[in-house]
Amino acid sequence: MNSEVEKKFKWARGLFPVTQKKRGITYLNSGSTGPLCRPAKEALEKFYDSAQFCDRNADFPAFADLDRIRRLGAKIIGARKDEVGFGFHTGFGLNLAAFGLPLKRGEEVLLSDIEFPSNVYPWLALKQKGVKAKFIRSSNGYFDIENFKKAIGKKSRVLSLSFVQFFNGFKNDMKRIGEICKDAGLYFVVDGIQGCGVEPIDVHKCRVDIFSSGGQKWLLSPQGTGIFYVRKDLQDRLITPFTSWLSVDWKLNFTDLFHYDLPLFGAARRFEMGTYPYAHVHAMATALELITSLGVRNIQKHIHGLLNLLIDYIRASGYYEIVSNIETKHRSSILAFTCPEAAKIHKILVKSKIICALREGAIRISVHLFNDKSDIKRLISVLDKFPE
Fold it and tell me: 63 partner at 20 to 30 Å CA-CA among 56, 97, 159, 270?
């Protein structure tokens, strides 16, 4: 990474109060919740200050930022703006897929047996329609493509899969999986939350039909925000499971509303639900602007460079064992490792204000654009005290 790009990351780090030395926090847990940067918090405060008096029309700036979210979200995942909408969480887009795809009684949805629950329960709810969920057996904690191919049957219609696995950071080979889905006639639905914004993806090249990501993790946005993608040529075929009065175009003229014959938007925003959380919309637009200004590939390179320091330490330690797959095509911005006293060490790390997660018996480190080498060195300084 050249010096100019490094300067940008140093500048970006300064936007995050969580990195201030006086706080004593080393935050390595963006895979759970990403901290807000100062501009995002200021966007929230600006809205709430105005909301105390309601002395101005809040619709126009909010709808401008909704449009900015669709545009920047599309840039992040390699989509067109009219294929991206504002969602409230990952589950929003996954429920849109589960209840919107034209699935019939007796057909089946394929799921990994190590999925995060938000990508399971919407599909299990289809039992009421006679649609079955079939789980694909994983291998060593990873999604197994060969087992996936064997699981495809005559009644299979959908594969719904995480871009990056939440507990060990395994990044699935989306392009290859998308090709298999295309050849088998399966809809390809992706839970993108653990990679969106930090791991490059092109939903078109990967033949993804529907993609959904909450904004509160790697997109560094408030809770209750997110984006979803619906492939353009699928939008008219998707059964609309819910419709809002803002699924049609009022041209922001809310003074003449007795029209019940307006056509739905010819874009993914037809599936959005209004009224929107304006404050969070402004904050999310600000956060996405930061991510796109740095560039997802640059962010990935920055993160992987920091994780390399930790990987080298763990490999040499003789005590810790890497759980994540660190093969280039499968590694992500999450690194999980374990040891005989993982739960105890995790408690000590958190007590030391080194914030990380414990998932499935492993310590999960999730590094973001605001982290630097000093954060990894501080983590290692505590890990180095074990075994006692």
Answer: 97
